[in-house]
Design brief:
With about 575 residues, the chain is α/β, with parallel strands linked by helices. Helix content is about 30%, strand content about 20%.
Amino acid sequence: MRRRSRLLPRGVAATLLSSLLAVTPAAQTPEVPAPVTRPTARQITVVGEVKILEVDTSRGPVNVAWTAFGPDIAVFDPAFPEGLYAIRDQLGERTDRVQAVALSHGSATSLEPPLAEWFAGTVVEDMGGPRAHPAALEVDGELAITRGGVRMVLRSARDLAAPGPALVAHLDQAGMLFAGALGNAPETLDGVPDAGGWRRWADDWSRTVYARVLPMRGSVQRPSWLLKLRHELDAALIAEQSAASRLGSLRGARVALEIDPSDRSPLRILTRPLDDALRQRLAALSPRVMIVEARNRDDARQHAATVHAADASFCDAEFLAAAPELRWIQAWSAGVERYLAVDALREPDHLVLTNMRAMSGAPIADHAFGMLLSLTRSLAAHRDAQTRSAWDRSAGRIHEELAGRTLLVLGLGGIGTACAERGHGFGMRVLAVDVRLEPKPEQVERIVLPDQLDTVLPEADVVMVCVPLTDQTRNLLDARRLALMPRGALLINVARGRVVDTEALLAALDSGRLAGAGLDVTEPEPLPEDHPLWLRKDVVITPHVAGRSQGTDEREAELFVENVRRFVSGEPLLNVVDKQAGY
């Protein structure tokens, strides 16, 4: 996907700056441009030290403004070339030069030599593109120009456009905000809004009460124009976040690598071997994307010194020590405890770790309920009878309904939420334990914090374990807590084996406290051949395969492609792991 939110076509600025170069002493003699029909100013407004013209052009009414800085003038939103001619006509025979140009749009190629001489002074580039003019001033952050008691502030909006900066300007004394370029916001490319940066700027501007706001088109207006824009940006930002959230989580989203728009050097991304389709999708994102594929850790170490992003499976201590340029690490699983066990990955703040949380929520929840139904409908026992060709209606000891039972979900991430939705669909009463009480899914009756787990375990006919493995969740369900569950309750674990104390689980099954368990994960894992869990008819075991599905593979590939696009564009990554929390 292409970089979004270009304010105006790149050729506009390139043409303008090429023209500016043509008037410098060292430049070649420019071709004489064709004359331009000079527009007549329809209205003149004076706000403080600022003069504003409303000029009728072929593109409709255009605002043009200027203010004096001693012997020079500053021009805002000049709408080349008509706006400059209109200002020149207002000044008559005065010899003022342009000291700075802000928010310019249009082309300077039609300027006749007398008018082109105005550009002998400093020119502030506004819309990106090549910086061809020797006197061009690159603004990054904020630049203040003060002349004759008037202060003009140019503010860079570099994060809103590529490859160069965009500018907005305001005059403190005049209470005037020049926000002409915002007339395009929230402009989209590929149908995807890029409103976040615009929204931040509009929020900043709106904190100042300006006497006037100068939009790109139409009349000079009061701040209500800016407030309207903010509402439009809010809607676009919500749409942008919604689109992103369909791929992954925005919680903790952050930029892994600050991108210099003028830098075109490759960004090397180290991956496991990819299929042709995924390789082509990644290559199409940007000329800067360079995929480096490694078959194993030994192969990966040969590339460590030059890579900027890497598959987490390669990132042991030795690899990290040899990878000074590394900024982003992608885990292809939801659980990341084995990666966070590496101090060199967990501690440095500059290493951003992302995972695949929520990518396999649907199939894991399906699997959890498959195991639950196998237990409540004694499907395993009937399967055994089938292998004996026995019509045995007495096989199994449990034939229960789910409707009306209480399901307790431990962890309301992507997997837990999907389990809660399915439990509600079966007519179950759903409770949950999570580190956050909000937002509460409508299918969940009540959420409690982890320190209140003991208060809800006695209500749970079924407990589904969906929490990540952290120091706080290791052996979360020990003998004491398993004893708090109602007699005959069922336990389903689709998280990590070490969240449940295996010896305590066996004891609870032996005593009848638990009527059965479904385990896609175990401790130890893989489960040894002689482990007593294998022989139990009240336990359903699968070899950590709950997350496998074609849909999971497709979602993971989609998330990876989007994160690569975000990485090379300098945008916040999705599914960022809080390395201190462990998920």
